[in-house]
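Obj.: predict assembly geometry.
Materials: sequence records (below).
Method: joint structure prediction, all chains together.
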Amino acid sequence: QKEVEQDPGPLSVPEGAIVSLNCTYSNSAFQYFMWYRQYSRKGPELLMYTYSSGNKEDGRFTAQVDKSSKYISLFIRDSQPSDSATYLCAMSPYSGAGSYQLTFGKGTKLSVIP
Amino acid sequence: DADVTQTPRNRITKTGKRIMLECSQTKGHDRMYWYRQDPGLGLRLIYYSFDVKDINKGEISDGYSVSRQAQAKFSLSLESAIPNQTALYFCATSASTGGEETQYFGPGTRLLVL
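Observations (raw structure tokens):
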């Protein structure tokens, strides 16, 4: 079993739709959870960062972490064509020595159709 | 100007050649990383460095070497390139302070080994 599982898609939605992107993981040591957005031919850029369980909202984006189910989600409200990109989840355990290392999902490719 | 820059952006080389990919950053971060990204495999860590005198192997270091010439510069070398090293290579940086393990990525180098 891979440490982090993410459906690669592709996912195609109409403009204005609510998008739900998800990752599951197996390592209960993960404490820090991130979502990166990667446009075509660009490097990943950090979109959302959460620590432990709970929700975090930033504009149209909401990140949720359910550590009991080992499941994280990213919701995009009122999706726009500019949201078309690949979304990567990433996570890290908390430890003084190990907190540097991120484990990434393979990414979900999202297309928002005007 | 970009905070993390990579050169070259694209490179075509032949099997057996030695090549170097370079990364520079102006973020003042102490930690630097090299990843490769392959379709269906996601981002995988090749090497990372906590400071100029600290170099560590990542998940897939075989066939690669690195040099941390200064806090702001981290180079990746392929000693004898082979076709399965064809991939998209990313440099990333992070700070060891502040509590957030956020990595900032460069724009990537697209490498083709013939």
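Conclusions so far: The radius of gyration of chain A is 14 Å.
To do: check interface contacts against the pulldown list.
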